[in-house]
């Protein structure tokens, strides 16, 4: 019997493109601003993303992102940072 | 001789700083804020000159360039960032360098960085526990999120080495660990934290049975949603796993068990004076 999969595992080289995109989405406010204004145009700049990754990014679908290779933390942070930028009125800032 | 004058541990969930109004109960959040502020009062009363803060990285710095088990930040000052929040903190570089060299001498291959932006695991506890940003920091970053992470026992051993170094430093030092408790962000188990584990572990920590956490495997820690307790394990290495913890609050919410506690350092201080 194999051990159950870890929730927070190693990132394999094949999964780097989607994770690099998500990493940049958080780190680069200008990329985030451009993506939120025109997501498809920005994704076109990332030629190494799979179709599944593109679809999950556009849908901001956490489970889909993880299925496409995203680390779960980067997947959920896409939604968190997109929401905070787009709809700040939905949040209370302490 | 140096002295550990305060030892604190807290949750750091993003929702505590930037609360989504639709999903997070403001009263729940306020109770955790109050517990963190109580840690702040202990910190202020401790006479600490430096704050060693042990946090982690939610893949905001280290993804594909390098991922190290333990990193000490040795630059002159450090930025912390989360959403619209951005602060600069002074760093106790002399002590950070002592930690770096001292760890290597004690057979812990500690990495160092002079270019890291501290993430919300640092910014959020500091926001509530030390809003004055008066104390210089020694930031320590533990790899919690990308396998293979350091085993719980290894985190504890690093903490033991850290404790020796800090006590030999001549400084009055506070230690603050940021992480936990059970949560599974980004996974299907997100709405189902393991509150039973958390409560049972807290009872053990109150009784001075930190050994239970030290002896867990990395896989077991992942299974109960407590990969971030690696930061607490480092602090436990500093204070000793048999030192009873005092739980300030345990506040379960729909996705996270918010634990806030401290270890009373007064007995050690009295012993040191005797």
The CATH topology of chain B comes to Protocatechuate 4,5-dioxygenase, Chain B
Q: Return the average pLDDT of chain A rounded to an integer.
A: 94
In CATH, the architecture of chain B is 3-Layer(aba) Sandwich
CATH H-level superfamily of chain B: LigB-like
Level-1 CATH class name of chain B:
Alpha Beta
How many domains would you count in the coordinates of chain B?
1
CA(first)-CA(last) distance of chain A:
48 Å
The biggest sheet of chain A, with number of strands, parallel, antiparallel or mixed sense and barrel status, is:
none
Structure described in brief:
By secondary structure, chain A is mainly alpha-helical. Chain A has helices at residues 16-27, 29-37, 39-43, 51-59, 62-67, 72-86, and one strand at residues 91-93. Chain B has a single domain (3-273), classed as Protocatechuate 4,5-dioxygenase, Chain B, CATH 3.40.830.10.
Description:
Chain A has 94 residues and is mostly helical. Chain A has helices spanning 16-27, 29-37, 39-43, 51-59, 62-67, 72-86, and one strand at 91-93. In chain A, α1 (16-27) packs across α2 and α1 runs parallel beside α6 (72-86). Chain A starts with 15 loop residues before the first helix and ends with a strand. By secondary structure, chain B is α/β, with parallel strands linked by helices. Chain B has a single domain (3-273), classed as Protocatechuate 4,5-dioxygenase, Chain B (3-Layer(aba) Sandwich), CATH 3.40.830. In chain B, 36% of the residues lie in helices and 25% in strands. Chain B has nine helices and twelve strands. In chain B, the strands form two sheets. Chain B has an eight-stranded mixed beta sheet, sandwiched between helices.
Key terms:
heterodimer, A: 94 residues, mainly alpha, 6 helices, B: 274 residues, alpha/beta, eight-stranded mixed β-sheet, three-stranded mixed β-sheet, globular
């Amino acid at each position: 019997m194999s051990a159950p999969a870890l929730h927070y595992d190693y990132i394999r080289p094949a999964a780097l493109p989607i994770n690099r995109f998500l990493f940049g989405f958080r780190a680069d406010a200008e990329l985030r601003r451009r993506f939120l204004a025109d997501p498809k145009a920005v994704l076109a700049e990332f030629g190494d993303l799979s179709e599944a990754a593109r679809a999950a990014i556009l849908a901001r679908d956490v489970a889909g992102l993880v299925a496409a290779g995203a680390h779960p933390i980067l997947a959920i942070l896409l939604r968190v940072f997109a929401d905070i930028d787009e709809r700040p009125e939905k949040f209370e800032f302490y | 001789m140096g002295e550990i004058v305060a030892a604190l541990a807290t949750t750091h969930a993003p929702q505590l700083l930037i609360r989504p109004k639709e999903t997070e109960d403001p009263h729940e959040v306020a109770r955790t804020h109050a517990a963190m502020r109580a840690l702040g009062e202990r910190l202020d009363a401790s006479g600490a000159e430096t704050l060693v803060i042990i946090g982690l990285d939610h893949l905001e710095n280290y993804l594909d360039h390098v991922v190290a088990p333990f990193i000490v930040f040795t630059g002159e000052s450090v930025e912390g960032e989360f959403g619209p929040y951005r602060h600069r903190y002074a760093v106790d570089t002399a002590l950070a360098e002592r930690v770096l060299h001292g760890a290597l001498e004690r057979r812990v291959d500690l990495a160092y960085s002079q270019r890291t932006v501290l993430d919300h695991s640092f910014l959020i506890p500091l926001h509530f526990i030390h809003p004055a940003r008066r104390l210089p920091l020694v930031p320590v970053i533990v790899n919690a999120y990308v396998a293979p992470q350091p085993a719980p026992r290894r985190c504890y051993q690093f903490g033991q080495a850290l404790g020796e170094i800090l006590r030999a430093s001549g400084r009055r030092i506070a230690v603050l660990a940021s992480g936990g408790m059970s949560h599974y962000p980004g996974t299907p188990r997100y709405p189902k934290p393991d509150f039973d584990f958390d409560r049972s572990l807290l009872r053990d920590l109150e009784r001075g049975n930190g050994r239970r956490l030290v002896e867990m495997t990395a896989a077991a820690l992942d299974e109960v949603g407590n990969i971030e307790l690696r930061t607490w394990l480092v602090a436990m290495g500093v204070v000793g796993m048999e030192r009873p913890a005092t739980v300030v609050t345990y506040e379960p919410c729909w996705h996270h068990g918010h634990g806030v506690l401290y270890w009373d350092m007064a007995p050690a201080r009295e012993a040191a004076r005797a």
